[in-house]
Amino acid sequence: MSDSKDDQFLVRAILSGDISAFSTLYNKYEGCIYRLMLKMCGNPNTAEDLAHDAFVKMYENLDRYDSHYKFFSWFYRLSMNIAINAGKRKREVPDNDNYTEPVDDSNPVIVVEKNELKKNMDRWIAMLDIKYRSVVVLKYTQQLSYSEMADILNIPEKKVKSRLYSAREILRTYIQKSGFYEE
Amino acid sequence: MKNKQINYYSVKWIEGSLSDEEFLLFNEYLHSHPLVQKDLEAQKRIHESLVKENQQEANIPDSLRGRVFQSIDHYKYTNSKNDNIIQGTMKKISSKQQWVVAYTFILGMIMGIVIMMFSGNKEPDLMNLSGSMLKNSVCFPSQYHNDKAEVEIETCYNDDILSLTLALSSVEEISTRISFLSNAFEVYAVKFISGNEYSSSQTGYNSVVIDTKGEQNVVIFLKNKTDVSQKIDVSVSDKFVQLFSDQILIEN
User: Fold this and answer.
1) Is A98 a residue whose pLDDT tops 60?
2) Cα B41 to Cα A27, B18, B30, B231, B235, distances in angstroms
3) Which residues are CB-contacts of A3 (< 8 A; sequence separation ≥ 6)?
4) End-to-end CA distance of chain B
5) Which residues of B are less than 8 Å from A161 in CB distance?
6) Do A52 and B68 touch (CB under 8 A)?
7) A141: which DSSP letter?
8) ipTM confidence
9) Which of B43, B54, B74 sits opposite A140 (nearest CB)?
10) CA atoms of B104 and B90, how far apart (whole Å)
């Protein structure tokens, strides 16, 4: 995911007063942090606010970062806490004009329309409880390993896997309730 | 197959990361457990949908970068850098140069003291000074009473100095704040005439705060910096509420 030594070099430069090093660090993490926030909150405006808060908090607390730990784990944990706290206050379900209303169970089996599924997936992820949403977002948006996710979320790896399994089960019920049936 | 093995293989099967040997072994297990296979196949479809769906790049708003850089304190870490530079510079001065600097400084101090001793402008002698002893001064009293505290203030001032003599009496701890414009007055001294273990004072560029409990007497001396009439704010509070608030008018 990221070169830890490069990150630590940039952190040391920032702490020495080199603001351009922060620019480099920002460029490196801008995309993934914004995407993380977007998936966590489901709204682009809120995601921008949360991403802004994450970068500012990271900068403000850089002198407390312990270089024994990977920088990106520390930054991700900080970002996830911001997203989780925001999620506890307010849950946004993304607008989706193409959201399909549930159909009657007696209807014939319908082949899964992959494009329709994709459109609704953001909505369903946003509907997940924050603890399931976190693992789904870290796994599929950030492509993190189980050990990295466990480190960021501060839970055992086994728990990460079980939450992911449960999250997929919940998403499966949303898909079925929405009238998408698998052939 | 043990449960722990099944869980381990299940995760890898969903993600398509089983080795050939593991795949064959687990497939055999799945064929003999069709319900488990159906469940895992459903999980695998969700997994693949999530993988494909999240391959799309999100458009990062152009305003994000500007907002972040506007919000951070650009000088938070640059000051520490300057400190390092200063320390590094000092190290480079040779020991001989350091002695020259030190002797010059000491000589300058001695000359300054001599000049001050023989100069015409003498600062007030604090040991013998109380408000009513200010020469050519105007004095007037102020009083505030309630069941929690009694505060009496004698205000005296001339062209140079203003003194506030406070007689404080309270059952519990109180905090007396004297506030003023920094271009009108400057704190010269705070003197406890009588105090106890609860006596303390804090001075700022535009205020003096006296913390007391019981019977205490304090004199605050302010230097007059202007000849324009000024107001001094007085407020007295206990731990919970403000007890008194008033303004003292100084007419110059």
Assistant:
1) no
2) 39, 15, 10, 82, 75
3) none
4) 98
5) 7, 11
6) yes
7) T
8) 0.79
9) B54
10) 17
**Distance from C-alpha of B178 to C-alpha of B164, rounded to nearest angstrom:** 9
3-state SS class at A44: helix
The residue of B15, B60, B79, B85 whose CB has the most chain A CBs within 10 angstroms, and thus the best one to mutate to test that interface, is B60
Most confident of B83-87, B189-193, B207-211: B207-211
Burial of A13 (0-12, 13-18, 19+ CB in 10 A): middle
* Residue carrying the six token digits 């660090």: A25
Instruction: From residue B151, give the alpha-carbon distance in Å to each of A102, B126, B141, B188.
Output: 75, 23, 11, 22
pLDDT digits (tens, 9 = 90+) for A21-35: 999 999 999 999 999
**Residue of B59, B72, B82, B86 to mutate when probing chain A, most A C-beta within 10 A:** B72
- Bridge partners (DSSP) of residue B185 are B224
Token digits of residue A132: 């399931």
**CA distances (Å), origin B199, targets B191, B196, B206:** 11, 6, 20
Q: What does the DSSP 8-state code read for residue B60? A: P
Residue found under tokens 């990361």: B17
Residues shown for chain A: 183
Q: Which residues of B touch A139 (CB under 8 A)?
A: 50
Element (H, E) at B70: helix B63-71
Residue A61 has pLDDT above 80, yes or no: yes
pLDDT in tens, B143-193: 888 888 899 999 988 888 899 999 999 988 899 999 988 888 888 888 888
Integer Cα distance of B121 and B128 in angstroms: 18
When scoring A39, A52, A176 by the number of chain B Cβ atoms within 10 A, the one with the most, hence best to mutate, is: A52
Instruction: Give the distance from residue B97's alpha carbon to the nearest chain A alpha carbon, in angstroms.
Output: 29
> In degrees, to the nearest 5, what angle opens at C-alpha B239 toward C-alphas B236 and B243?
30
Residues of B in contact with A55 (CB under 8 A): 68, 72
Could B64 and A161 be called an inter-chain contact, meaning their C-beta atoms sit closer than 8 Å?
Answer: no
Using beta carbons and an 8 Å cutoff, which residues of B are at the interface with A? Answer: 7, 11, 42-43, 45-47, 49-54, 57-58, 60-61, 63-65, 67-69, 71-74, 76-82, 84
